[in-house]
């Protein structure tokens, strides 16, 4: 029996990963360690919450005692998604990001080493590399140059993870992805914010002139990449995962309005975010050549299906907006 510990499995990417893996490998058992903070949504686990190979442990990675509750059974591998991830929140409360993303990762690594985990996949972000100009791409050799407290806290967690491989020969692998999108993304990120506000005929805030460019990656393509890194990746290595879908924030919001038949007058330009990175773009050549991964979902197709999901899942949105998604947890 293979047993995987997933942290943050009630979140956007973590819940998609568990659902994907249970569908592909029905014999694998999952332990989901998630504190169910504001972005940890039990509704995201509806598809698998009653699966006989799934168990949710409510716990915070900043608390070693909570982590210990997830290791009551032998764990073969850890896939570490849990993190504070919203840049705006990191600007307002950077201490929370340092505590969760750096100290929490350290606690999890220490517990995993103690329990003899065979692989530890640390899921990170391209934001640790900083900002690109008009040309060029991030590679695994690009120096880390984070520009927000969020990105800095993730860079710190990456370095802690790397140190466990270098110092203890602990089998750590690091992935760095571009901007994910897809169903069930918490409505604070650009795409779900634009969709949800457009559906309610509310203004969609656009930072600055809206020309900041991101490389968009569908969450299902990301899950396939993590699966490959888990099974075939080499410990000590970093794998960049990018969608080859560069588009400005303004273009994304405009496409969403067009798809929903909403007027461009809903766009509301607001003062730019502090330290706002201009452009992200990933070169995924390494994961493509070494592990055979390539994105399968184009941005046009993926964005269309994502919009359709939110249109058909407005009760999911309403439960978040009303707070009902967390009722009964405390």
From TrEMBL:
<dbReference type="InterPro" id="IPR005888">
    <property type="entry name" value="dTDP_Gluc_deHydtase"/>
</dbReference>
<dbReference type="InterPro" id="IPR036291">
    <property type="entry name" value="NAD(P)-bd_dom_sf"/>
</dbReference>
<dbReference type="Pfam" id="PF16363">
    <property type="entry name" value="GDP_Man_Dehyd"/>
</dbReference>
<keyword id="KW-0520">NAD</keyword>
<dbReference type="InterPro" id="IPR016040">
    <property type="entry name" value="NAD(P)-bd_dom"/>
</dbReference>
<feature type="domain" description="NAD(P)-binding">
    <location>
        <begin position="5"/>
        <end position="305"/>
    </location>
</feature>
<protein>
    <recommendedName>
        <fullName>dTDP-glucose 4,6-dehydratase</fullName>
        <ecNumber>4.2.1.46</ecNumber>
    </recommendedName>
</protein>
<keyword id="KW-0456">Lyase</keyword>
<dbReference type="GO" id="GO:0008460">
    <property type="term" value="F:dTDP-glucose 4,6-dehydratase activity"/>
</dbReference>
<comment type="similarity">
    <text>Belongs to the NAD(P)-dependent epimerase/dehydratase family. dTDP-glucose dehydratase subfamily.</text>
</comment>
């Amino acid at each position: 029996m293979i047993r995987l510990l997933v942290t943050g499995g009630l979140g956007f990417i973590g819940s998609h990963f568990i659902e994907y893996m249970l569908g592909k490998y029905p014999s694998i058992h999952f332990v989901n360690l998630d504190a169910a903070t504001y972005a940890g949504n039990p509704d995201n686990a509806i598809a698998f919450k009653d699966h006989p190979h799934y168990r949710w442990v409510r716990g915070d990675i900043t608390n070693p005692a909570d982590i210990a509750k997830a290791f009551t059974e032998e764990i073969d591998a850890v896939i570490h998604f849990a993190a504070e991830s919203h840049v705006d929140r990191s600007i307002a409360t950077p201490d929370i990001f340092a505590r969760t993303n750096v100290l929490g990762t350290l606690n999890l690594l220490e517990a995993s080493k103690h329990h003899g985990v065979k692989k530890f996949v640390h899921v990170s972000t391209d934001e640790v590399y900083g900002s690109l100009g008009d040309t060029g791409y991030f590679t695994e050799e690009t120096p880390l140059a984070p520009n927000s407290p969020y990105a800095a806290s993730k860079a710190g967690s990456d370095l802690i993870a790397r140190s466990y491989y270098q110092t203890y020969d602990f089998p750590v692998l690091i992935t760095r992805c571009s901007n994910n999108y897809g169903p069930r993304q918490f409505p604070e990120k650009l795409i779900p914010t634009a969709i949800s506000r457009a559906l309610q005929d509310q203004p969609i805030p656009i930072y600055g002139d809206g020309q900041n460019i991101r490389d968009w990656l569908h969450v299902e393509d990301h899950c396939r990449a993590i699966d490959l890194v888990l099974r075939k990746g080499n410990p000590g290595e970093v794998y960049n995962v990018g969608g080859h879908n560069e588009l400005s924030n303004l273009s994304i919001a405009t496409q969403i309005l067009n798809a929903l038949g909403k007027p461009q007058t809903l766009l509301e330009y607001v003062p730019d975010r502090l330290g706002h990175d201009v452009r992200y773009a990933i070169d995924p050549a390494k994961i493509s050549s070494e592990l055979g991964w390539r994105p399968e979902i184009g941005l046009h197709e993926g964005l269309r299906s994502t919009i359709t999901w939110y249109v058909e899942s407005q009760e999911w949105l309403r439960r978040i907006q009303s707070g009902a998604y967390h009722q009964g947890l405390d």
